[in-house]
Amino acid sequence: MGCDNCSTASDGTPKGCKNNGTCSSGGCDKLEVYDWLANLALPEGQQAYDIVEVRFKNSRKSFYRNAQQLSLYAGDIIIVDTSPGYDVGVVSLTGELARIQVRKKEPNFKPFETKKILRIANQEEIDKWIKGRSLEKELMHKARTLALNLNLEMKISDVEYQGDLSKVTFYYTAEGRVDFRQLIKNMADQFKVRIDMRQIGSRQEAARLGGIGTCGRELCCTTWLTDFRSVSTSAARYQQLSLNPQKLAGQCGKLKCCLNYELDSYLDVMKSFPKNENKLQTEKGDAYHFKTDVFKRIMWFGYQGETGLIALTPERVKEIAKLNREGKRPKELNEFVEKVEKEVEIGYSNVVGQDSLNRFEKSFTKRPNNKNRNKNKNNNLSQKSDNS
Questions:
Q1: Which of 85, 45, 48, 46 is nearest to 70 (CA)?
Q2: With contact defined as beta carbons under 8 Å apart, do 320 and 332 qualify?
Q3: HSE (CB half, 13 Å, CA atoms) of 28?
């Protein structure tokens, strides 16, 4: 695979376990992909797809062309052309699965214009790459100090060294436009490398930094989520969630991405519910809609001034609404309540008593010894003789 737990060959290149994405050591970082097409042979005469997906630090991925037809597997550490210089990345997808990913992510992808894979990284290049990773944390703190000295309203959240240590990319977040020209000059003089500044959003920042969500699991954007779709408060309304910003917002300060996960299921179920039927007219009075249980298919209505709620099915609500449109009013809503027979729960019954807690406890009486028996017999005989 090419991770720290895998050995290296004699020429310094990582051997790798060649398990196509499954590593017995527990994985080689986040956003792992299992190549489920790896064991399938290509049709006769078809050449292997020469575009490879390469993963860099955190969730940054890009596509490169394997022009030299190198034998690459998921997890191999390779050298890619960046012009100028080179960068080090990890192969995440190859073959037909990479073709599917290219069609999904970049429909206007031009394979002959993309940059090439130079070679498989040797041990010296891997050590240089690891050294750059170890310098990033200290470099980020120094850059933050320089930004504070210039009173810039920006937050430097992450730093990424290029594989050849010739360029450093600083990722920052800011509410408005920031003039960081003087900052770049100061950092270039102090760090002696080329500086690249990239502004990212709050969601991208949370994805790069990582964390634990309110569900108790690692953030979706850190582990597997690669695209950020817009989330609106209507998603919470359809799912009848409390519009509490503290509960609906994630660590990025935006609405949680997981609000969209079950939204399609709710929308499909809501198609069978009556629309805009918030009031039903009866002889008893007007009943107003309070809440809806989507998956139990129950709509709750209540009369104004009364505390109790009446449960109706969507079909019954449509029936009452049809009567109202015809100018008719039913007597009350209780006439339309469907009586559901309560199922008798058959519990477990202990028939033979094998589950009794005292089944191993038996009351044993102390048997008298032979001496006591003889004494009792003699006493009985003497009593009989005296009576006679």
A1: 48
A2: no
A3: 27
pLDDT band at 29 (very low <50, low <70, confident <90, very high): very low
* Cβ atoms < 10 Å from Cβ of 226: 13
Q: pLDDT tens-digit profile of 67-109? A: 888 888 888 999 999 888 899 999 988 888 888 888 888 888 8
What pLDDT sits at residue 147?
Answer: 92
Answer for the pair 359, 353: CB distance below 8 angstroms, yes or no: yes
Topology classification of domain 128-205: GMP Synthetase; Chain A, domain 3 (3.30.300)
Which H or E run contains 364? none
Q: How many residues does the chain have?
A: 388
Between 18 and 340, where is the model more confident? 340
- Euclidean distance between CA atoms 16 and 2, whole angstroms: 5
Q: Please tell me the distance from the alpha carbon of residue 132 to that of residue 126, in angstroms, as a whole number.
A: 10
Q: What is the pLDDT, as a whole number, of residue 195?
A: 93
Q: Where do the domains of the chain lie? A: 1-121, 128-205, 229-271, 279-336
Report d(CA 57, CA 333) in Å as an integer.
Answer: 62
DSSP secondary structure, 241-262, as one string: ----HHHHB-TTSSBPGGGGTT
- List the beta bridge partners of residue 79: 88, 119
Q: Token pair for residue 357?
A: 């807690």
